[in-house]
Amino acid sequence: MMKKRDSLTFNGVFTPVIYRDRGIDLLDQTKLPERALILRITDVAGVAEAIKTMRVRGAPAIGITAAYGMVLGLERGEEMDRVAETLRATRPTAVNLTWAIERMLDTFRRHKGAPAEDLHAAMLSEARLIHSEDIEANKSIGRAGAELLPKGSQVITICNTGALATGGYGTAYGVLRAAHEQGKLKMVYACETRPRLQGARLTAWELLQDEIPFRLIVDGAAGALMARGRIDAIFAGADRIAANGDSANKIGTYQLAILAHYHGIPFYIVAPTSTIDPHTEDGKGIAIEERSEDEVLAPLGVRFAPEGAAAWNPAFDVTPAELITGIVTERGVQHPPYSLGRKE
User: Minimal CA–CA distance to 72: which of 96, 104, 102?
Assistant: First the structure.
């Protein structure tokens, strides 16, 4: 097993993606936990393929990867608007992707007339700033979220929101990490997260390395845990948060919120402010990515369904704001009614 802190690091923390020597080094998350394969990507097509196939995933992480992809496009003399469109088209739900690309385009336009070396330096500096800002935001998120938990807490989380999904440290996972560091966390119950099993493959991998006590559960077991009074809170990430607080996250999150509401358990969405989309009024305006039915029929390449069966495979669902106890960002915890207007 690869030790995270012996591999890719940025600003002193483990990161799944880093730019160096005119290329991107990226941990291929489709190979975890069996193999820790670091890919070397040197062109925009490779970046787009890595995002689309979920070699890198998690809203903040794909935004950072796209920002570095814009730098690669510049280095290879590609037209920046075309590079932006190629990267933007890879995954439609995560707002961080478009947000990061727009920041890179703004930087390019501001420095377009500068000497080539200065333009490159400005673009690379902006990409690295996006990366470092995310790490610092995650640390602030972790501290804010940990304050919500009493000592001895038992929590549920879904999908993967750790360093693997971000620039480093984690969002919802960052809350768990901070609570563990403060001695507050008794147990994490990690949903396996079908059909791609990010909870089983990735969150469990991170929890083991951080020595945080946990149990892996099938997605359908969450309600049974709540009914037995063994859960104090639920923390989930987000790929896009509408202005009214409606939040899109990994498929199955909405069900957790309904169960939490029924059992009177706090349900929190955890994400940086870059995940807030002030231009989308509510969850009805969030585009939901639908992925290949093969991920359901033959998860991880192993066929379970009979030949001839068909599947529906939305990657995300939307949790209505009224089911969300609080939204944790680097600016603190916001409570309903939510009014998440234009970011500064």
Answer: 104
Which pLDDT tens digit goes with each residue over 235-250?
999 999 999 999 999 9
Pick the last residue of a domain from 118, 138, 158.
Answer: 138
> Strand, helix or coil at 256?
helix
Half-sphere exposure of 105 (CA within 13 A, CB side): 15
Residues 134 and 221 in one domain: no
Alpha helix positions (H), 204-332: 204-209, 222-227, 253-263, 294-297
- Ramachandran angles phi, psi of 190, nearest 5°: -100, 120
Residues 219 and 325 both lie in one domain: yes
Query: What Å distances lie between residue 196 and 217, 219, 300, CA to CA?
Result: 14, 12, 7
Amino acid type, 306: P
Given a contact cutoff of 8 angstroms between Cβ atoms, the answer to whether 232 and 212 are in contact is no
Catalytic residue selected from 25, 134, 232, 239: 239
Helix or strand (DSSP H, E) at 188? strand 185-191
Q: How far apart (Å, rounded) are the C-alpha atoms in residues 201 and 50?
A: 18
User: Measuring CA to CA, how many Å separate 197 from each of 32, 251, 312?
Assistant: 11, 11, 17
What's the gap between Cα 120 and its chain centre?
Answer: 28
Choose the final residue of a domain: 138, 166, 197.
Answer: 138
Distance between CA 26 and CA 56 in Å, rounded?
7
Are 155 and 284 in the same domain?
A: yes
Q: What are 152's two structure tokens?
A: 């001895």
Dump pLDDT digits (tens) for 72-115: 999 999 999 999 999 999 998 889 999 999 999 999 999 999 99
Q: Is 239 among the catalytic positions?
A: yes
Counting the structural domains of the chain, the total is: 2
